[in-house]
Amino acid sequence: MQQRWGLPIVAWPSRLRPNYWDCIALPLVLGTIVLIAWAGGQMSVPYHIGEQLPISLDPLKLPEYGLRTVLRMALALVASLVFSLSYAALAAKSRRAEKVLIPVLDILQSVPILGFLSITVTGFIALFPNSLLGYECAAIFAIFTSQAWNMTFSLYQSFLGVPQDLREAARMYHLSPWQSFWQLEVPFALPQLVWNMMMSVSGGWFFVVASEAISVAGQDVKLPGIGSYIALATEERNWGAVGYAILAMLAFILVYDQLLFRPLLAWGQRFKVEQIGQDEVEPPWFLIMLQRARLFDVMRSVYDALIALVSTARRVVPRADRRPSFRLPPSRTVDITWNLLLLAGALYALVEIALFVHGEVGTSEVLRVFLYGFITLVRVAVLIVLAALLWVPIGVWIGLRPRLARRVQPVVQFLAAFPANLFFPVVVSAIVAFHLNVEVWVSPLMILGTQWYILFNVIAGTLALPTDYQFVASNLGVSRWLWWRRLILPGIFPAFVTGAVTASGGSWNASIVAEVVRWGDDTLVATGIGAYIAQQTEKGDFPRIALGIAVLCLYVLLFNRLLWRRLYNLAEERLRLD
Amino acid sequence: MPDDSRLIYAEQVCKTYQTTDTPGRLVLDHVDFSLHEGEIVAILGKSGSGKSTFLRVIAGLTPPTEGRVAYRGEIVDGPAHGIAMVFQTFALFPWLTVLGNVELGLEAQGVPRAERRQRALKAIDLIGLDGFESAYPKELSGGMR
Fold it and tell me: I want to staple A165 with a disulfide (CB 3.0 to 4.6 A). Which of A497, B43, B91, B102 is the partner?
């Protein structure tokens, strides 16, 4: 029998003896610990506001910069994971919380990363005076905002989609909500989550320039990192440095892929709900090492013991076993009160914002900002349709070939992670050279980084389609067109919606970077809400930033309510794989 | 209750599924049922006639719209301790091994690890699946599941 990926459970004392795999594992683990300790120490060096941090375009500095960027990304990823698990669980469990949390998530997703940065940076600096830690926190928070929302949406969707049978089985085994969360819901959500984590990390790379080279609200700090390197290279029009940055990016994304996502993906296969065994993908080398080296068995034993301790500890707390566990019909009075409270809160916030903004900005400017928003809306809608037409067929085609998908996915990931800012110089030069229409030709930049969300999710959705369905379809001799209409399109629909929601959110977000582009001294400005926010952010004009962000959020929210939310509901009610 | 040998009894159980457009679909119409100790009972019926729904009501997975169900003299108002059910799709957790699936119910009740393992292995032995403890559900044939 083939070596199974799970660890042997019986006879564990012998598995704790070291073996050859440990020769590789031990130095790797120790080395990683040393590197993390060093980079972590660099984060909290003393720093005084106004000081210039030396950033050099020397390619030899790139490994160091890369390491520090990677550490920031990892911290942000851990934070995103914790955040999305709790947030999505709450939204999926409580109908009333869902009413607030999901729209809030929509808004958070639509608030541009620059907006978060300009609002929080002063707070973080005040938190750690005379230390770089404040800026580091701001940067990590900015990266977090580019990762967390996407992961949360994915988890939320998976939690809603847990098969009814498994839910009932969990209830029959009398799993407590805590146990069923870790034994059922999280494992079920894992495959999709791993994909989205990968996507989120790519998104983080995309915004790494904006988050490391902090230049909002009068601040101008470049934290040592690969993002600052790119920012400096763009400022100085240094094509050579841009090239080195691309190479370094490639290397770091490869390392992330090999050490983190490849093993995670292979391991995540186990969590797919599917009864028929499928072609086993060969386990990646790093996963084999993790599973064979005894060192990790020792770690696992410690981890198991901890888990056992936690679950016993929880058992000491008396369980409300005798309480009737049928769900009570929702109380209308509480519902109405809750809705009224929400309405009151929203109205109050609205009045506050209106007062804050209206003191500074006239009515005609407000109307103009709404018009800007509409122009950007048209851009986003057209781009999403075009991207869907292009990437859905390609994504399905790839997803049906798991082996190919494994090979294509690092490429897609690289393309998605590739900071589109590096392409901007080319576009700016082309627009200037050929006297192209700025309003039209700047638009593709908005979707450059986000179209991959659609492709990624379509591939993931197709991969997650139970193989049985394809067997049935070919067994019934279903024709090509019917196969698309009856099997594939409904099957990937939930995944596609997730991808499209994220892509449109990302495009709104990217409009701020894309509607004003620079390369050295050439600056191109298109009409749109993104350009408005970008310009006001640079000036640090808070009432106008607030107005811009509020209008942007309003558009995104309406877009989500009127379109995406309906598609989501449709996906959940009709197309759930039960 | 005059008759103590009744393990399960159901009185006048009705179940209506609420649908959005119609007034609701009546699936179980005043069903009376009792099961005595030592009995093996099979319920036959056409597809969609409500056999699984009835089982779900007895197991306490779904509340009856009307009527009541009792197990060992106690009204069932949630998943009952002591009633097990095999699902049509088996409802095995695909990420747990055979052993893990068998142990899950015991784990939920807080049975200590060593005892849990011993009892689970015994059960696996009993149904003749020994040797497959560390296999995953998708590696088993239909009958084995």
Answer: B91
